[in-house]
UniProtKB/TrEMBL annotation, chain A:
InterPro entries: Methyltransf_11, Methyltransf_Superfamily, SAM-dependent_MTases_sf. Keywords: Methyltransferase, Transferase. GO terms for biological process: methylation. GO terms for molecular function: S-adenosylmethionine-dependent methyltransferase activity. Residues 212-243 are annotated as: Disordered. Coiled coil: none annotated. CDD domains: AdoMet_MTases (cd02440). This is Phosphatidylethanolamine N-methyltransferase.
TrEMBL record, chain B:
This is UPF0434 protein M2A_0162. It holds the Pfam family Trm112p. Transmembrane segments: none annotated. PANTHER family: PROTEIN PREY, MITOCHONDRIAL (PTHR33505:SF4), ZGC:162634 (PTHR33505). It comes from the Bacteria. One of its GO terms (cellular component) is cytosol.
Length: 243, 71
């Protein structure tokens, strides 16, 4: 069991189906600062972008015209809204909207210059599997952006987190999700860790995939994890940092 | 302004088709225009395209070997 209190896929889908109509007006504004920040960083890049967990497509209008954006999500209801948004706003840089499971992507290896997952890692049952898929579809030399809430249970942030807990549970968050769950499993190089407003509640991680090496082939051989540090639910002590 | 999410034609963008693989086998897919499905021969699954959105989920796919209706 890699994560405490696994959330099964079905309940995530159900929660999102229930939340889709109000999602943009509830969770939306809280998380929006982080979303904006990440998209601004991505807009300084070029080429293709995969947004994993595109949801209702809140971020889609913000991507630069020079980018080619593909969005995926597990929720049919949200994707319908995303598609409507693309049509209404005439977003020609959005190339495709596809329904997929983030832990089992249906893209060939190395297809995207940039891969971004915002507020995804805490709502998926197997974050380590998702991280490996993000790595796989990222092109050599490309970058992976993760925006997420990571647990910190002291100070002002701890209080805010407790205050937000009921909403968080409804959205299927793991309130105790630690940054090491991500950094401990990836072979990508962590380039940047940036606490985001408001009050560092969310963090943006930026990873780089090494260019021009056979990083992908070991992964594509099978699902067997490389000799990676094992992830356990308990990461409190003994620092699982791997770089 | 042709993008893959347009609904004027129930089909699939060629560029998208090039980068899509079967989520289970990571093998190639063949587009069945008539049925509007993406076929993974290896997995024996046909992934539907609904409202212009390919549904790349095995649990939503049609099993090619459990075909009871006439071909």
């Amino acid at each position: 069991m890699s994560v405490k209190s696994r959330i099964d896929e079905k309940s995530v889908r159900e929660a999102y189906a229930r939340w889709a109509p109000v999602y943009d007006f509830s969770f939306g504004p809280i998380a929006d600062a982080g979303r904006k920040h990440a998209v601004r960083a991505i807009n300084r890049r070029s080429g293709s972008v995969l947004e994993v967990g595109v949801g209702t497509g809140l971020s889609l209008p913000r991507y630069g015209k020079h980018l080619k954006v593909t969005g995926i999500d597990l929720s049919t209801d949200m994707l319908k809204k995303a598609r409507t948004r693309v049509k209404e706003k005439n977003l020609a840089n959005v190339e495709a909207i596809v329904e997929m499971d983030a832990s089992e992507l249906a893209f060939a290896d190395g297809q995207f210059d940039t891969v971004v997952a915002m507020y995804v890692m805490t709502v998926v049952p197997e974050p380590e599997k998702v991280m490996r898929e993000l790595e796989r579809v990222c092109a050599p030399g490309g970058q992976v952006f993760i925006v997420n809430h990571f647990a910190q249970d002291h100070g002002v942030r701890g209080r805010i987190e407790r205050w937000m807990a009921p909403a968080a549970r409804a959205l299927g968050w793991h309130p105790d999700f630690k940054v090491e769950t991500i950094t401990g499993i990836t072979k990508l190089d962590l380039q940047e860790t940036q606490p985001l407003n408001p009050m560092g509640l969310f963090t943006m991680l930026r990873f780089q995939k090494p260019a021009g090496e056979e990083a992908a082939d070991r992964q594509s051989e099978g699902k067997a994890p490389r000799s990676a540090p094992k992830i356990s639910g308990e990461v409190e002590a003994g620092a699982p940092a791997t770089f | 302004m042709a993008n893959a999410t347009g609904d004027s034609q129930p089909g699939i963008d060629r560029k998208l088709l090039e980068i899509l693989v079967c989520p289970v086998t990571k093998g190639t897919l063949v587009y069945d225009k008539e049925r509007g499905e993406l076929i993974s021969e290896k997995a024996r699954l046909a992934y539907p395209i609904r409202d212009g959105i390919p549904i790349m989920l095995p649990e939503e796919a049609r099993n090619l070997d459990e075909e009871s209706s006439p071909a």
